[in-house]
Amino acid sequence: MTDASELQARLDAQRHAFQATPYPCLATRRERLERLATLTRRHRDEIIAALAEDFGHRPAIETRLAEVFPLLQAVRHARRHLKGWMRPRRAAVPWRLWPARARVHRQPLGVVGIMAPFNYPWNLAWLPVVDALAAGNRVLLKPSEHTPATSALMARLAARYFAAEELSVVEGGVEVARAFAALPFDHLLFTGSPRVGREVARAAAANLTPITLELGGKSPALVAADADLEKAAERIAFGKWLNAGQTCIAPDHVLVEASRLTDFLAAMQRKVADFYPDGATGEDYAAVLGHRQRERLEAMLDEARDHGCRVIALGERVELPDGGAKLPPTLVVDPHEELAIMREEVFGPWLPVIGVRDMDAALERVRRGPRPLALYAFTRDAELRRRLLETTHSGGVVFDDTLWHNAVPALPFGGVGESGMGAYHGEAGFRRFSLERSVFVQSRRSPVGLLNPPYRKWLLRLLGL
């Protein structure tokens, strides 16, 4: 097991290597990114097998779609745009300081720490690594202790394709994670729950380590009066039950106008039957990872039943040979706000569906709650879209679909308030892991010496000072 002294030694080795080469050239950065892509392409089948082992059952197509493809796309995007991102940016100089010049110089921070979650253990570990390597940093990566097979594969492949001074994977449990968060990184990115995020923030604060937190939250989907119910149901079902709901940007609950509630529930049942004709027993439906996670979800559903909520199970629970289980897609109709299913992020296959008076009531409900990582709205009404964008807050907004904003490398990805702080992906990630350094170059012909004491009142008046 890795202890605090070994962690510090790994950090020191990377910092020493960074100080020897503090500004990697474009070719070096591109080559590191290509190695990461090669690592993923060549070992795709091993990645699929490791995730299936950790989950008990994970559809291979979901791993390819949600883990492998986004990483390879992110590498391509970064390699294509890296030269432009590295170029210094000119900054305007006030006329009073002419002919001086100014620019913004983007410089690597040093050593970046990344703490990854269990739900997408490959994607959410390596995507921030792409941005950190593109920005010229060294990286220490701590994958989740809940996915040991995937974490072991990551450590083995990282050691094969990268020098430890470039990129190193740290395996271990909760104590290792605590020690990792307490290291004096130049930047630390954590993806996970708000509860653990608070602990990470406290640990980082002791070193004044800058942090990025990606925390999820209760992302709502709004279905307006003008929405196509069949299409809305199809796209919400895809976003909700991909990976059995274990997605930080999955639709957490649906707010639909009460007059359309019954029709919407019927549409959801049809779409789930289309997607998973064999229910949770089918190959295309993932298991819920971890005994504690399943217990939490079952207690949440039992509480809703006990309080009189209508629960529509769209399949049967399936026990797996390794002791794991698949929990079926389930609709929970009109749960009270005091219930756990409405207070906590569901992060599983239960979908609360709530009837509201109208979209004004839905927007008010969104504004009243914690700011989510994503907000989904199904409407063609331009005025409603404008009001949603101007009067609510969320990390991202998607109209007439779910999840796919995360597949656009040029869009920043991050939360706000309870759902996190800071964003990455693409240029936003490059900037997140860079020091944007102000550079001012004075001209030999500069007249600023005229402003030296003793001050000339006529000159100050002329300059409007």
Number of helices: 16
Spatial separation of the terminal alpha carbons:
64 Å
Helix content: 40-55%
CATH class of the largest domain: Alpha Beta
Taking the sheet with the most strands, its summary is: 7 strands, mixed
Beta-strand residue percentage: 15-25%
Oligomer: single chain
**Order of adjacent strands in the largest pleated sheet:** 10-13-14-9-8-15-16
Poorly predicted spans: none
Please compute the radius of gyration using only Cα atoms. 25 Å
Description:
The protein is an alpha/beta fold and 465 residues long. Helices cover 43% and strands 18% of the residues. The protein has two domains: 236 residues, Aldehyde Dehydrogenase, Chain A, domain 1 (3-Layer(aba) Sandwich), CATH 3.40.605; 192 residues, Aldehyde Dehydrogenase, Chain A, domain 2 (3-Layer(aba) Sandwich). It is built from 16 helices and 20 strands. A seven-stranded mixed beta sheet has the order 10-13-14-9-8-15-16, sandwiched between helices. It has a six-stranded mixed beta sheet with strand order 5-4-3-6-7-18, with helices on both faces. A hairpin with a 5-residue loop joins strand 11 and strand 12. It is globular and about 80 Å long. The mean pLDDT is 96.
